[in-house]
Specification:
This protein has about 230 residues and is mainly alpha-helical. The protein has helices at about 20-30, 45-50, 55-70, 85-95, 100-120, 125-140, 145-160, 165-175, 175-185, 195-205, 210-230; strands at about 70-75, 80. The protein has 2 domains: about 20-85, Winged helix-like DNA-binding domain superfamily/Winged helix DNA-binding domain (Arc Repressor Mutant, subunit A), CATH 1.10.10.10; about 90-230, Up-down Bundle (Four Helix Bundle (Hemerythrin (Met), subunit A)), CATH 1.20.120.530. It has a two-stranded antiparallel ribbon.
Length: about 230
Amino acid sequence: MSYSYGVHHLHPTVRNVPLSVQIGTQLREQIMNGTWPIGTKVPGEHDLVKTFGTSRNTVREALRALVHLGLLESRPGDGTYVRSTSELGAVLGRRVTEESTKEVFEVREALEVQAARLAAQRITVEQIDALRALLKERYEGATVTDRLNADVKFHHLIVAASDNPLIVELHRGLEPAVIHDESNYTSMGSDDFLRAEHEAILDALAGHDPDGAVAATLQLLDAAAEKRGND
């Protein structure tokens, strides 16, 4: 299989930058621009050698550097996977694993409430349409995995609609905890759990109502926190 993903054949004379650094830079771009989302298995060394026209050692050095930064994770016998979309996200991801669920949830609430406020002012028609499709998948998806993925994407898209890169990056750092949190609800017996709250958020965003978006987001998070406390 051949992978290109926008990367290019490199030459050792380009700005006198080592090939491993050039390769690492291009791979990093694929991660940060979303071409390779978190959890994606990146092309193997053999494919990258063919893509870049360089040696296996050079490719291996580039991958090792990205693993060191926390952007990639090497799984012996399996391959290399995207762990984070930024260095900040990697640091936050490690920090999140050291904190309690309650503390992580409080940070998530702060970010998502402000993101909802900004998104209500900045969201596009295309993003609203995408949210509607994700909400439908969230409650009508064929499998638990489909519903979980749609739920996580729904919240990520709202954060992205805030059009604030720092909020987006901070929220990405919480992604492992968010996925774990959401999985507790999408697998529950009641298909309508939090449906009204999700719909209220979408309605407020579509109506460009910042106060309504904040209120609906808080209502959803409070309901989720109450459920967590009862489990």
